[in-house]
Amino acid sequence: CDAPDACKGGVCGTCRAKLVEGSVRMERNYALEADEVAAGYVLTCQSHPSTPSVSLDPHAKTLNYLNQMMARMEATNSGADEAVLYDMRGYLAEGAGDNVFAVHGEELITPTAREILVGITRTTIIELATDLGYEVRERDMTAYDLYAANEVFLTSTYGGVLPVVAVNGRRVGDGRVPGKTTAALVSAYERELSES
What we know:
Layout: E1 7-8, E2 11-12, E3 18-20, E4 23-25, H1 34-39, E5 41-49, H2 66-77, E6 82-86, E7 92-95, E8 99-104, E9 107-110, H3 120-131, E10 135-138, H4 143-147, E11 151-156, E12 160-167, E13 170-171, H5 180-195
Parallel strand pairs: 5-6, 5-12, 9-10
Antiparallel strand pairs: 1-2, 3-4, 6-7, 8-9, 8-11, 11-12, 12-13
């Protein structure tokens, strides 16, 4: 991060990265408090579009996050924890720093890879969900797919699997987080991390 003098006792006081033998090692949920994860995230679908693929290849991690940061600021100003951006066609693309999934029964739905940065954690969750017997579909999604879902969760390297409790002010499913599917995926993901 940009505050290296905040690093004391092996942990950065600003970004909470752990310093291990002179190098920075990011650990699961390093930037998230346990109570934030347990309470579930509040999402909002924002007016700022993701960067169109004709302008910048979304599969390249370029660190050009201006649109995402503007969307996250808009989300925070509206009382949400995270933003979900639309692509230029009007379909859901990705969060400001994460990928989004909706659970409908035994099926997981996530936006197609066409306009998103395909995260390592997203790929791992798709593999784990398939191994657990869930059907995973990548397709164009609208906000309604999130509203009608039994569960919604985000995936990211910094946070792992993050349950979502509300989208645009609407409670997701029964409002309890994590839901059964999300909890199963969190357990499988944590096992995968501990074995690697």
